[in-house]
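Catalogue entry: protein
Contents: sequence, fold tokens
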Amino acid sequence: MRALVLGGAGFIGLHLADRLVADGHRVTIVDDFSRGRDDDRLAALRARPAVDVISADLTSAAAWTALPRDSEQIYLLAAVVGVRNVEADPARVVRVNTLTAMHLLDWVTPGQRVFFSSTSEVYAGGVDAGIVPVPTAEDVPVMVADVTSPRFAYGISKLLGEAAFVHAARAKRCAPVIGRFHNVYGPRMGTDHVIPEMVLRALRREDPFRLWGADQYRAFCYVDDAVEAVLRLMGSPGAVGEIVHIGNDSEQTNITDLAKLVLRLADTAPHLQPMAAPPGSVQRRCPDLGKLRRLTGFEPVVSLDEGVRRTFDWYRRHIQP
């Protein structure tokens, strides 16, 4: 099989490309390297005869003319992500994420299987308003609490993409699957997300150790499990045109308990200093994976303890705290 991974030098994208190559497929990775990393892991993939790497700005319609059109599967993971990036330049988030999705829909051919990566952020307003239950299923209302808030720019851009691909499926323009990722983590995900950010502060021996949103709860999903779910969905005929959660609903953890796990791995015991939660962050987040199970039989296999240990070990080796 030939696969096209858009945003393939980024966090989930490169893990996905690695897995596709390991499964024997030919992969073309496309990235503009504004966030994706041209590092040792990408270099190892680039050296494989089954891998091509293209640098391209997918917000430009002209860039799509250079991409191979013979891929049986296309994965759209290219996007501006991360709370700090979103709050710093929400206009760029909306522009990049929307243009990339729209150009793909103009470029794709009927019958091509497309994975569109969406986000649990589409539920943030509804959870805070008390109209979205946790664990959360795909059929609950989505709500934007404040369209002017920079924090919601990412979720808005992904909702637009979801709508575009759902209606493209109904018009038979392509065969898309929409996956809403819930708190995916793992090696090589940058430094702005909660787990690597905690890891680096623990390695610096921060004391007191600050905990923003210490009483909040999350259900974290290790990246290998997320990739497995994506591949199963792309192989499921029943998933075409569907919106499906990707995550881990077997372990909800309190942020304070997560910090204690990280600190234990770092062999440090600082004083814990609870801090106010970041503006716009929800109190609780956990997906209901019933639909994913029905379509694919998926079950997460990497425990939080094991996934955090793998992530901790990677950051200790590769990133200066």
Summary: The first strand starts at residue 2 and ends at 6. The chain has one domain: 79-318. The radius of gyration is 19 Å. DSSP finds eleven helices and 14 strands in the chain.
